[in-house]
Write a structure and sequence with these properties.
mainly alpha, 134 residues, single chain
């Protein structure tokens, strides 16, 4: 693979990941500032708040898959699958790290790991359908 194309491929996956990361943490921060969520580092056990977080993280993960497919220099779905794999590994690592801290229910980080692949994939599919790829 040419270095230029490799760089664009890496950028596509990185931008998809960054999209999910920035949107998720940005929304988290706004909800903390509005006192919807407790201060950072304090436990949160309200199931409704976790469902809210799960809802917007699901949407943001779909958007991340879409961004990756859009920026990919070729084979958009290959890039989407790479992002899905990276996202799953990061989500599993997050679950392993946070569950013992008892900052909230264990189901939440587990569900984040489970939805990573289907949400990123859906973002890629939506991109392809919109741009005549499927």
């Amino acid at each position: 693979m040419q270095p230029r194309r490799l760089g664009r491929s890496l950028a596509a996956v990185f931008l998809g990941f960054l999209t999910v990361f920035v949107l998720s943490l940005g929304t988290d921060q706004v909800l903390h500032m509005l006192n919807v969520y407790p201060p950072w580092g304090q436990p949160m056990y309200d199931t409704g708040l976790y469902l809210l977080a799960l809802a917007y993280r699901t949407v943001y993960t779909i958007i991340g898959g879409y961004v990756t497919a859009k920026v990919a220099p070729h084979s958009p779905m290959r890039h989407v699958w790479i992002l899905a794999g990276i996202g799953t590994v990061v989500a599993i690592a997050g679950a392993v790290a946070t569950i013992p801290m008892k900052l909230g229910p264990a189901w939440y980080p587990i569900v984040l790991a489970i939805i990573s692949v289907p949400c990123v994939w859906l973002g890629g599919v939506l991109y392809q359908r919109r741009h005549g790829g499927l």
